[in-house]
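FORM 7B: Structural annotation worksheet

SECTION A. Query
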Amino acid sequence: MKKNLIIVTIIVTIVLVFDQVLKIYIKSNFSPGETHPLIGDWFVLEYIENQGMAFGTTFGSSIWAKLALSLFRVAAIVGIVYYLIKQARTKIRLEFLIAVGLILAGATGNLIDSMFYDYLFPVDQYLNCHLEYNLLPGSGNYYNCDYYGITERTEIRHTGFLFGNVVDMFQFRATWPQWMPWISGKEVFPAIWNVADASITLGVVLVFLRQRTYFPKDKNQEKKRFALNVPWKKKTSNNIPPETEEQNASDTKQ
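SECTION B. Predicted structure
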């Protein structure tokens, strides 16, 4: 148990460190929307932020929507940790524990953004009212924004503990071939994502594809259940074999 938990903890730590170091580097050195190619023109780094869930999914404009999302992440992380420790005490495969650990690392990585980035990168210095991901109509949170020398009160996103934006940076720019109907020329995967998103996705895919390996069925138990449920098997009472019942009936007639 301890060995498996140590291995999973090391993997979670590596993912978290890589995720946070990359996010801090991107936010400190890239301008919003700045791009740099990683592999040709189809896989690039592009700095952007999002207010919601994985892959830029939004979750409403009210303060309660964002708070609910952050609290859900906290609850999910606590539940995953509990489940991970509980499964580690069994003879479950290490590969399954690693898959759950990847989900845990991803959820924690994005939660760290929401919890601390508005303090690590103070709103007064880093919030740019010209960026769409900092604006949130209907939020009720007004901020004096400077538009080319003119100050205007503008509704911005909620800020503070558990309300920070999540930093994203990876994007595939591959498009579907022209010969494909309906989707020709469109981006294969337009969302911009981060290491945490990739970690969650990999963990979920592993659990989905390998669930039969992680949770193998006991063949002996299946055979016993099948045998007990065979409709044509002659029922006996009190677990007495049929031959004994027939002999008892014969003795009674005599």
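SECTION C. Observations
DSSP finds eight helices and six strands in the chain. The chain has a mean pLDDT of 86.

SECTION D. Sign-off
Analyst initials: ____
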